[in-house]
């Protein structure tokens, strides 16, 4: 299991995290579970500058989405000797409606890569960069992703942005239903 440009499990920050958490000393299943829980629970959902960044940068950012969190998960797993691989398929951009600001929604590619990681448990595999173009990529890296992350933070606080074609619950209607 050699490192790659993205799976830089020998980076100081990655190796230090593995050491501090004691993951390499755990039994295989516990090792996988502990690393998965870390990435799921301690690396928040958010958009990085690009999908093709090294795991050490995802860790430094402290946030990621399916593709970048997958990169970090794979690097950590490989760093403790767990074989893993990446799977992916495309989803329609409509699934990100509400997170992607409406002003830039038309710029997003119609199909977006979604990925997940599989691990080799010995008896079988278990599963638990968009091409924007130069100008779109530049906008994404320096403006749009920050805008999207702010929208995700607002959604977490319960502030839902308007989404064309979707009705928002009427507060008065909810109160009427509760009284009935």
UniProtKB/TrEMBL annotation:
Q: Name one Pfam family in it.
A: Transglut_core
- SUPFAM superfamilies under this entry? Cysteine proteinases (SSF54001)
Q: Which Gene3D superfamilies match?
A: 3.10.620.30
The signal peptide stretch is none
Q: Where is the Transglutaminase-like domain?
A: 28-127
What PANTHER family does the database record attribute to this sequence? Answer: BLR5614 PROTEIN-RELATED
Q: What is this protein called?
A: Transglutaminase-like domain-containing protein
The beginning of the lineage is:
Bacteria, Pseudomonadati, Pseudomonadota, Alphaproteobacteria, Rhodobacterales
């Amino acid at each position: 299991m050699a490192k790659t440009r993205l799976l830089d499990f020998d980076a100081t920050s990655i190796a230090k995290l593995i050491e501090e958490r004691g993951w390499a000393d755990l039994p295989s299943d516990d090792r996988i579970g502990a690393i998965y829980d870390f990435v799921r629970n301690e690396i928040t959902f958010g958009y990085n500058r690009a999908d093709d960044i090294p795991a050490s940068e995802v860790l430094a950012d402290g946030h990621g989405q399916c593709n970048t969190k997958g990169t970090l998960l794979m690097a950590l797993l490989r760093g403790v000797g767990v074989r893993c691989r990446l799977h992916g398929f495309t989803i329609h951009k409509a699934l990100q409606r509400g997170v992607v600001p409406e002003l830039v929604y038309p710029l997003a590619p119609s199909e977006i890569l979604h990925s997940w990681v599989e691990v080799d448990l010995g008896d079988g595999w278990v599963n638990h960069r968009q091409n924007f173009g130069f100008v779109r990529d530049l906008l994404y890296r320096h403006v749009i992703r920050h805008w999207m992350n702010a929208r995700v933070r607002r959604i977490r606080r319960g502030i839902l942005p308007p989404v064309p074609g979707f009705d928002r619950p009427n507060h008065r209607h909810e109160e009427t239903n509760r009284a009935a």
